Amino acid sequence: MARTLTDEQGVKRYLVNLKVNGDNHTVMVKGNSLLVNVLRDELDLTGTKKGCELGDCGSCTVLLDGKPVNSCLVLAVEAEGREITTIEGVAQNDKLDKLQESFVNNAAIQCGYCTPGMVLSAKALLTRNPHPTETEVREAISGNLCRCTGYVNIVKAVMAAAEQE
Amino acid sequence: MYLPDFEYYQPNSLAEACRLMAKFGPRARILAGGTDLLHKMKHGQLEPEVIVSLNGLERLREITYQKGVGVVIGARATHNDIAGSALLQEKYRSVCEAAHHMANNQIRNVGTLGGNIVNAVPSADLPPILIALGASVKLAGSQGRRVLPLEEFFTGVHSSVIEPDEILTEVIIPDQPSTGSTYIRFGLRRSGALAVVGAAVAVTMEGETCREARIALGAAAPVPMRARQAEAVLKNQVITPDLLEEAGVCAARECSPRSSIRGSEEYRRDLVRVLTRRALQKAIKEGHV
After folding, report:
1. Computed from CA positions of residues A43, A48, A50, A55, in that sequence, does the dihedral angle turn out positive or negative?
2. Which CATH number does A98-163 carry?
3. A108, B21, B69, B210: which has the fewest C-beta neighbours closer than 10 Å?
4. Is A30 in contact with B5 (Cβ distance < 8 A)?
5. How high is the ipTM of this complex?
6. In chain B, which residues fall in CATH 3.30.43.10?
7. pLDDT for B102-135, tens place per residue?
8. What average pLDDT does the structure give for chain A?
9. Which residue has the higher pLDDT, B142 or B243?
10. Which helix (H) or strand (E) holds A103?
11. Position A1 pLDDT exceeds 90
12. Which residue of B lies nearest to A117 if distances are taken between CA atoms?
């Protein structure tokens, strides 16, 4: 459990240790702070998008201990000690991940708003299952909505990245 | 969209969690996965002053087999924990399948079995298959613990027998006489859609004869319901396609669905007929799928 601090007015805050994209951060949050807002506003990791904010659209997807979750439905205080990967952590050493390359090469990006979440859901799938079927790809990104409806190329990009394995 | 203020507690023991719930009563809410609670709080449908998080109670996430008891699933097990459990895959793949087809991957990584039950939503996917398998739930309260059949847990839409100071801690699937079970749901989309109707069955076959059938329906009444008349049609009968159709017709007659944006009453009744028949066929032929 995160360390608690109570200010003069009796408001409680929590010192939360997060490991984000390999870096350790300690942030001070209120009980009702959502992980998405802490990532965006405190850590300036604005690649994580806010869409519906109700767990339907998947734009705020991050990996929590390697698993995709909607960061709009996670209390920051509950992420104490967890490993978080945001879209900023996918490219290593300023070089795009092959999955990201594949999104570019297959024109899997239109407006781009769903892309961070799509990439993270696909990344988690390929880590767990390096050679998925098309059905498995579609299932893995079924919690990520693309309002440009560019699903065909997104699926193509994930399949192409898997083939390079 | 921000959450209103609340006091946050993360107890280290179940006893402490129960004590907090007893102290704050209806002013407090349990937070497990949060996919439903935080959603409702953002919409202003719930404004708890206190949140008691089960995040510190890792043991409530275990899925184990206890000899003489059965499969015990901790209430904090997520839908993906259930879908991917080797133990459940081996014994009751029907339960894994029900968990796997809910909501979407992000929600399944966070949402819990306990939440799916305690919310008492008629369309919830796990209660029907668990009821068909004769599962019980364990409730821990400040006054002690009690175990009751899941079937007797629900009292209406969003209501159940759980007291404000009680916490659902585990679901127990007893060792089965049944030889097969399955859950089939119909949704308007394959992902992220509530069940329009769900049908779960568990059958005990002896050759071609059905010794017993348990049929539980979701979104077919205000609570997950047993289709007892349909079950009676099958008891000690040699199974024929006509008999399965008759059981389906019977289930459609005895259920009481409502009309909603997802489907009219009439449409749902017809779905109950078809899904009940298909679920029976599958469980009879393929075992616990």
Report:
1. negative
2. 1.10.150.120
3. B69
4. yes
5. 0.95
6. 7-53
7. 999 999 999 999 999 999 999 999 999 999 999 9
8. 96
9. B243
10. helix A98-105
11. no
12. B106
